[in-house]
Amino acid sequence: MSSRAAPKVAVLMGGISAEREVSLSSGRECAAALRVAGFQVVEVDAGRDLPERLADIRPDVAFNALHGRWGEDGCVQGVLEWMGIPYTHSGVLASALAMDKIRTKDIYRAAGLPVVESVMAPRGAIEAGHVLPPPYVVKPSNEGSSVGVYLVMDGANSPPRLSPDMPEQLMVEAYVPGRELTVSVLGERALTVTDIVTSGWYDYDAKYKPGGSHHVVPADVPPRVFDACMDHALAAHRALGCRGLSRTDYRWDEARGIDGLILLETNTQPGMTPTSLSPEQARQCGISFPDLCRWLVEDASCQR
After folding, report:
1. Choosing from 29, 271, 294, 304, which is the catalytic residue?
2. What superfamily would CATH give domain 97-114+177-291?
3. pTM of the model
C-alpha cells in the first residue's frame, strides 16, 4: 500500500449466491465504513465478469463482503490469489472447509470440540423415511444464513417434504435444544459471547430483519460456559485455518450444563449488516465499525 495516497479497496458484494441480498447490505455498510476510515472505495457487484472488473480497477486490496457459495467457499479467494490481489478474511482452504459442514465437523472432532451426530443422505432417502430419530435438522451442507433448513421435531409422523430446489445430497443433523450462542474471533482474539434470543427458530428472517432477534451482549451464562465458548471459538478458528474475522455458532442446552454446549458451524464471512453479530461484538470490545473494517483491510494478504 502506498503511503502517498489512500489505498484503493474494492468491496466485493452481491454475487450470485442465495445470500445475494444480505451481501449487498453487508457490502454497502462496509464501503461506507471504509470511506470514513479514509480509504478509496470501489463497490463491486461480483458477477461472472469479476476478473475483468478487478483488472480494470486495479485495487490495492479486495474487501470480501460476499456471503454464501462462490464468495465464502474458496472460489473467489482462488480468483484473488491467482490475480495477486491481497484480500480480507480466510483463504482458499479454510473457506472451503468451513463452508462444508460435514468436513467442518470432522475437524471439530479431531480438535476435541463437541458436536452432535450428523450424516449426509440423498434427498430421496430423507423424504422416504427418518434418516435419524426425530428431532433432527435437514439442511444443505454448503449454504449459510439458515438457507434451506428444515426442522423435524420429536413425534413427527412423517419425514419432511423438501423444496424442489434443494440439492440431491443433504446433511441430516441431530437437533440440539436450548439457546443460540455465538463468538467472533478477530485475528487471534475471541471477542465475547452473544446470546441470540428469538421467539422461534433462528431462521433467515430472524437473522436479518430488524426486530427478528434480540442480542444479549455479553451473554448472561455461567462463567464456565462463557469461557468454553470463547476457548472453543478460538480453537475452531485455528483448527480450520481461518484468518481475519470468523464467527462460531453454538447451541447450549442449559439443563445439561457444560455438557449441553455444542458447536454448530464456523462462519468465515460473518454478516456485516446493521443487525449482524460480529460488528456488535466488536463494539462491545471498544472497536468501532470503521476501525473493524480498517483492521480487516490492514490484515489483508495473499496466500492466506
Report:
1. 271
2. ATP-grasp fold, B domain (3.30.470.20)
3. 0.90
